[in-house]
Amino acid sequence: MNLLHIAEGWYKSKIHADKESILLSKKRLKECIKCPHAVDKSFLKFINGKSVNEKTKACKLCGCPIVEKSLVNEEQCKIGKWKK
Ligand code: SF4
């Protein structure tokens, strides 16, 4: 996930995701939920000037938070599970 994709994913997950992104994310997350590469992970975030350690699911293959990754149209699953 490049820096622009990270910013886009965080923005869409916390502030605003359009309808198309939400539908795409739901479809992708159905695959991630079943995937053995989805693991628990903590990410340090800065929200309203405070650092927060947020626990979430991440993809073990790329290290990305799954919800945010799934919201970015250009992102791909490294093993092709999102193409189904
Ligand atoms: S992005 Fe692909 S490899 Fe990663 S958790 Fe989702 S389905 Fe699994």
Kindly describe this structure.
By secondary structure, this protein is of the alpha+beta class. It has one domain. It has helices at residues 3-14, 19-34, 66-70; strands at 38-47, 50-59. The protein has a two-stranded antiparallel sheet. The longest helix has 16 residues, at 19-34. The protein is globular and about 40 Å long. Residues 31-32, 35, 37-38, 59, 61, 66, 77-79, 81 line the site of iron/sulfur cluster (SF4).
Largest sheet: spatial strand order: 1-2
Q: What small molecules does this complex bind?
A: iron/sulfur cluster
Count of alpha/pi helices: 3
Q: H/E element string?
A: HHEEH
The total tally of domains equals 1
Taken from the alpha-carbon principal axes, the silhouette is: globular
Strand content: 15-25%
- State Rg: 12 Å
Output the structural class. alpha+beta
**In whole angstroms, how far apart are the ends?**
21 Å
Low-pLDDT regions: none
Q: What is the overall pLDDT average?
A: 91
Question: Which features does this protein show?
Answer:
single chain, 84 residues, alpha+beta, 39% helix, binds iron/sulfur cluster
What is shown here, in short?
With 84 residues, the chain is an alpha+beta fold.
Describe the secondary structure blueprint for this structure:
Blueprint: H1 3-14, H2 19-34, E1 38-47, E2 50-59, H3 66-70
Bound molecules: iron/sulfur cluster.
Iron/sulfur cluster is lined by residues 31-32, 35, 37-38, 59, 61, 66, 77-79, 81.
